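ok new one. same drill as before - structure tokens go in, u give me an amino acid for every spot. 212 of them this time. try not to just spam alanines like last time pls lmao
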């Protein structure tokens, strides 16, 4: 896959978020069709909301990494987060070495490749351990090199409790009573988070936030 311009990235992300928002609306209609009182429908709907939260953040991040990869920039012109991705891919097999050899190889690699175009891994590189909690979301932001916004930080308790926590309870077969108002709050949270994350990614692409 190639994403050669910020305009093309915008088109890809618009399509990605559009089908998700459309499905979220369809789910809400199904919930409302149950009078907002159907426990099974509400619980199943919470799982779908979580799936779109994790799914979009991962997909959006990968598309941005793909975009930066297609820039084919020299190592020295990339931000520290992208340099780290290159190093991790290049030296992953030797990171258990406690001696100085791995660091010598890394220094030599930087010296030789600082002005050469490098390949940035973009598929399957997101370090999400378990569910996409606020801690894991912060790590994703670090990996792609965007600021962790204050309004995201203010939503951490809701992310970890109302979204991830409830998802885990339902997925593990525990009884979790969900009210219609709870569902609407989490729906708004998810839509807001994925929309604002998309905006940050697109702004970074336009402003060259991937550069050193």
């Amino acid at each position: 896959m190639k994403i050669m311009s910020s305009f093309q990235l915008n088109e890809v992300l618009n399509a990605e978020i559009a089908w998700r928002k459309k499905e979220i609306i369809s789910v809400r209609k199904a919930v409302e069709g149950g009078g907002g009182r159907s426990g099974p429908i509400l619980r199943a709907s919470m799982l779908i909301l979580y799936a779109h939260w994790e799914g979009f953040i991962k997909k959006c991040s990968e598309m941005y990494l793909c975009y930066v990869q297609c820039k084919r920039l020299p190592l020295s012109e990339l931000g520290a987060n992208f340099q780290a991705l290159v190093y991790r891919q290049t030296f992953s097999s030797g990171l258990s070495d406690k001696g100085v050899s791995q660091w010598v190889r890394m220094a030599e690699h930087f010296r030789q490749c600082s002005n050469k175009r490098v390949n940035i891994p973009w598929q399957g590189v997101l370090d999400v351990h378990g569910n996409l909690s606020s801690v894991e979301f912060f790590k994703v932001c670090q990996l792609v090199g965007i600021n962790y916004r204050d309004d995201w930080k203010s939503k951490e308790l809701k992310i970890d409790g109302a979204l991830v926590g409830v998802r885990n309870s339902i997925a593990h077969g525990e009884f979790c009573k969900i009210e219609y108002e709870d569902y609407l709050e989490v729906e708004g949270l998810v839509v807001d988070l994925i929309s604002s994350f998309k905006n940050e990614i697109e702004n970074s692409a336009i402003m060259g936030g991937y550069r050193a």
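The chain has a mean pLDDT of 89. and btw The two ends are 25 Å apart (CA to CA).
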